[in-house]
Amino acid sequence: xxxxxxxxxVAALSLISFGSFAQSVSATASxxxxxxxxxxxxxxxxxxAYKITSAQFDNRVHMTAELTx
Length: 69
Description:
By secondary structure, the protein is of the alpha+beta class. The protein has helices spanning 2-19, 32-46; strands at residues 22-29, 49-57, 61-68. The chain has a three-stranded antiparallel beta sheet with strand order 1-3-2, covered by helices on one side.
């Protein structure tokens, strides 16, 4: 009986982790504000929150972020 409960608990926890997602996105623009606006728009289309993971600036800004639901 204990092994059945353990199996059910493990199965339930594994389903929770598959229910969430993380997606990496990137944007290029002329300013930090415009690049972040592009990231925010992508997140809004997906119905997700975003966290900026990197931003590089030479002549243009290249920004990457992770979208999470």
